[in-house]
Amino acid sequence: MKLKILAFGITKDILGGAEKEIELTDEITVKDLKTKLESEFSELKRLRSYFIAVDDEYAEDNQVIISTNEVAIIPPVSGG
User: Fold this and answer.
1) Which of 79, 80, 77 is closest to 9 using CA atoms?
2) One GO CC annotation, please (predicted)?
3) Burial (0-12, 13-18, 19+ Cβ within 10 Å), 32
4) Number of structural domains, the chain?
5) Are 73 and 12 in contact (CB under 8 A)?
6) What is the pTM for the complete model shown?
7) How many angstroms separate the CA atoms of 31 and 33, rounded?
8) 25: domain CATH number?
9) Within 10 A of 76 (CB to CB), how many other CB atoms are there?
């Protein structure tokens, strides 16, 4: 299955664009997706933290992702 991932902020730079499509063999959990992304884009490991959102909601590591989900990588944010 193909999964489109949206990237924002620094994660856009790390992935090389605002959107990245990856090929998956089956359903995947958020934790598995993070592991896959970190193996392909090792700079993600250097971030203090980042979140995965699925269909506009922050996702827990055990949430299953399917090809019809909208997935986004949310980088750490700072405010003031």
Assistant:
1) 77
2) molybdopterin adenylyltransferase complex
3) middle
4) 1
5) no
6) 0.89
7) 5
8) 3.10.20.30
9) 12
AA letter at 14: I
In a domain, 21, yes or no: yes
Task: Answer yes or no: are the C-beta atoms of 28 and 66 closer than 8 Å.
Answer: no
Q: Compute the average pLDDT of residues 23-39.
A: 91
pLDDT reported for residue 1: 82
The answer to whether residue 79 is domain-embedded is no
Task: Give the burial string for 5-23 (b: 16+ CB within 10 Å, else e).
Answer: bbbeebbbebbeeeebebe
pLDDT in tens, 55-76: 999 999 999 999 899 999 999 8
In a domain, 63, yes or no: yes
Q: How many CA atoms lie within 13 A of 5 on its CB side?
A: 25
Which candidate, 4, 15, 7, places its Cα nearest to that of 75?
Answer: 7
Q: Is 22 helix (H, G, I), strand (E, B) or coil?
A: strand
